[in-house]
Each structure stands twice: as C-alpha cells, then as structure tokens.
Amino acid sequence: MTQLLISVKNVEEALLALQAGADIIDLKEPTIGALGALDLVTSKKIVHAINRRVILSATVGEQHTNVGELEKAIHSYHEIGVDVIKLAVNDLFSHPEFEAEIVKITERNIKLVAVFFADETIDWSRLIQISALGFFGAMLDTKQKNKDLTQIVTKKQLQLFTQACVVNNLKFGFAGSLRLQHVDQFTLFNPTYMGFRGGVCKAFEREFFLLPQSVSDIKKLLLKHNNFELIVQY
After folding, report:
1. 147 a catalytic residue
2. Most-buried pick from 7, 71, 163, 205 (CB within 10 A)?
C-alpha cells in the first residue's frame, strides 16, 4: 500500500491536502531549500487543525552544525505532536556523537526518516547504519528541483534502493519534483509513500499555492494501484 505524502506550508494548505485525500501531511518551508523547516508556530497550528486525522511528518532543516542542535530540533517537532521526523543525510551522520544520541531518540519510539539526495553522492551503507540505529524509514529525494527523480536515477538504482530498504526493514519512499505521470513508474516498486510538492502546485512551482485537484488526481491513481496490489496478493 503506497501512501500519499503532500508537503504543506500553512494551515490552509494542510486542510486542503487532508480534504483531497493525503495520507501523510508533511510540514515544510519550500522557499528555503529541499528540506526547509517550517517554523514551530505554524507547525503547531497545523498539528491542532489536523487533530490526528492523518499522519503528520516534518523536516527539521539542514542548518544544524552539531548533533546537539539536530537533537534539539527533533525533540521540538516531536513535542508539538508531529509523528515522523525527516532528517537529511549529511556529514553529521559520521559525527562521533551521532549514533549514541540518535539511539536515545529512537528508543523513545520517535520515528525518524533519513532523506537521501539522489543528486549527491550517496553512501549506501548508510541504510545499514540507520536501520541499526532504529530509524523508521528512508526516502530518496532530490536536493535541486530543476530535474525530477527520474532524470537523475536509473531503474537499477531504484531497485537497489528498494531492495536495501526491504532487507534492512525500513519503510521507504520517493520524492523529487514528482508529478502525476510518475505515479505508475514508481508504484512498480511498492514504496510505502510517495511525496509531492511542486507537482501539486500552481505552474508546478513548489513556492506557489497547493492545487487540491492535483492532489486528488494523484490520490485516485494511487488508489487504483493499491486496489490492484490487493487483488494480486489475494
């Protein structure tokens, strides 16, 4: 079953995404990078508006210079009621304090998702690392938004990512300037979730406002795929 993740930047977008069928509402500030953190005040308003009707995820940004800052950001979003916290895979994952501090977090059942950028060099051994540390899942995304994920990775690379996640018991998903036409291609890998922002915004610009009809169209296509999967499994 592939869930639909929609990134939103305010309460209005969050409610529109909910009504259009999003399974996961992702809190993000699209004007400050691929994983820009939405401010805590707005994030808290969204948490209250959604009121646990669907899963909420949030990015914590990429600005942290040490493990302590990252840890503080994770706890900040968890404490306001966010269900899943997304972290960019970066140099902090190699810091001597990283593993011990992250284990303290995952042992509290805080769900973490590691986001790998396909347009940067990927150390695939990180998937083994995050599994050992108790991460909930992994995501393959793009840092630059001038190309979509299909223009950066091959089918073979997608297969390797999928297999590595399955072997390491990680939920997994894809994002990166994806649009409606990409759904059929990526659902072949049966991801846990597919993430959209620019592909469901006016003029396909992630900084513009959300288009509920675009969200609904993708949701309908995902439902067709999921229903087909249920029939095949049965």
Report:
1. no
2. 7
In this predicted structure, the answer to whether residue 146 has a pLDDT above a threshold of 90 is no
Does residue 28 have an active-site annotation? yes
Q: Are 89 and 115 in contact (CB under 8 A)?
A: yes
Name the strand (E) or helix (H) holding 222: helix 212-233
Beta bridge partners of 57: 26, 84
What is the per-residue pLDDT for 228?
63
DSSP string, 151-163: GTS-HHHHHHHHH
The C-alpha angle with vertex 114 and arms to 95 and 66, in degrees rounded to 5, equals 30
| CA-wise closest residue to 107 among 88, 129, 132 | 132
Q: Do 142 and 177 meet the contact criterion of CB atoms below 8 Å apart? A: yes
- Angle ∠(202,204,209) on CA atoms, nearest 5: 35
Residues 36-61: what's their mean pLDDT? Answer: 98
Phi then psi for residue 215, to 5 deg, are -65, -45
Identify the pLDDT of residue 212: 98
Catalytic residue among 9, 44, 45, 86: 86
- Grouping H, G, I as helix, E, B as strand and the rest as coil, residue 96 is coil
Q: Is the pLDDT of residue 33 over 80?
A: yes
Percent of all residues in the chain with a pLDDT value above 90, rounded to a whole number = 91
What does the mean pLDDT of the chain come to?
95
Given 28, 111, 145, 219, the catalytic residue? 28
Handedness of CA 213, 214, 219, 224 (dihedral sign): positive
120-148 core/surface letters (b: 16 or more CB in 10 A; e: else): eebeeebbebbbebbbbbbbbbbbebeeb
**SS3 call for 26:** strand
